[in-house]
Amino acid sequence: MTNYTELIKPNGRPDRSSYGVMVLAQVVIAAIIWFLSQSPLLPTPVEILRAMGRLVQNDNLIQELWTSMALSLQAMLIATVISLLIAYATVIPFFRPLAFLITKFRFLTLVGLSFVFTLMTHSGHSLKVSLLVFGITVFFVTNMVGVVQSVTRNELNHARTLRMSEWQVVWEVVILGKFDQVFDVIRQNFAIAWALLTLVEGISRAEGGVGTMLLNQNKHFHIDAVFAIQIVILLVGIALDYGIGFLKKLFCPYATLTH
């Protein structure tokens, strides 16, 4: 028998059927409120769908979305390589001050650094990639240093009892042993990159992208188009997030095992 009281208990454990009913009811209530809303700042779902169709047909939304995805993936790949090298280098005390300094750069704003990166780069595309790589790396390094530091002395000593050299200990315990957590860090920081996309494409509008399209629609107060683009950005971001989660299960199936 379905027990709905578990839905309102602290640390409750509702069964699948009651949980599904709760989610469906919340979605229906939210949809009704949305349909009945008369706020000029909140377009109806019908208006958003019409705007989305107009953007696809007249403004090349799909092409602009692909441009933004390619930019984000390129920046994420470069930032991942750089961040992993810096984070893993902290096993050597000489490199720890560098990593510490980079983690503090996360308090800087990209707008204030755009002039510096403009002088350092030779095109609008390289400017956007550089800004995104910087924005991702400072947070990625912060998270990965935490992963490296989470390795316990017992884990290191266990590897040493197997007569491994210190470099073998780093490879087996720090790198391979924590590899599943790298995917978690990538998921977290890809969300940051996806959120920074609009800002970066607003700084340099070369090549377009959904960020540029969003800013243009917002400038002309096309609220329905703004919501349509935001929904597309949200759905694509969620899909990419699940994609990274799938890669984690594929390459690190042991991560889902319970003890």
From TrEMBL:
<dbReference type="GO" id="GO:0055085">
    <property type="term" value="P:transmembrane transport"/>
</dbReference>
<protein>
    <recommendedName>
        <fullName>ABC transmembrane type-1 domain-containing protein</fullName>
    </recommendedName>
</protein>
<feature type="transmembrane region" description="Helical">
    <location>
        <begin position="131"/>
        <end position="151"/>
    </location>
</feature>
<feature type="domain" description="ABC transmembrane type-1">
    <location>
        <begin position="65"/>
        <end position="244"/>
    </location>
</feature>
<feature type="transmembrane region" description="Helical">
    <location>
        <begin position="75"/>
        <end position="95"/>
    </location>
</feature>
<keyword id="KW-0813">Transport</keyword>
<dbReference type="InterPro" id="IPR000515">
    <property type="entry name" value="MetI-like"/>
</dbReference>
<keyword id="KW-0472">Membrane</keyword>
<feature type="transmembrane region" description="Helical">
    <location>
        <begin position="221"/>
        <end position="240"/>
    </location>
</feature>
<keyword id="KW-0812">Transmembrane</keyword>
<keyword id="KW-1133">Transmembrane helix</keyword>
<dbReference type="InterPro" id="IPR035906">
    <property type="entry name" value="MetI-like_sf"/>
</dbReference>
<feature type="transmembrane region" description="Helical">
    <location>
        <begin position="19"/>
        <end position="37"/>
    </location>
</feature>
<comment type="similarity">
    <text>Belongs to the binding-protein-dependent transport system permease family.</text>
</comment>
<dbReference type="GO" id="GO:0005886">
    <property type="term" value="C:plasma membrane"/>
</dbReference>
<feature type="transmembrane region" description="Helical">
    <location>
        <begin position="107"/>
        <end position="125"/>
    </location>
</feature>
<keyword id="KW-1003">Cell membrane</keyword>
<dbReference type="Pfam" id="PF00528">
    <property type="entry name" value="BPD_transp_1"/>
</dbReference>
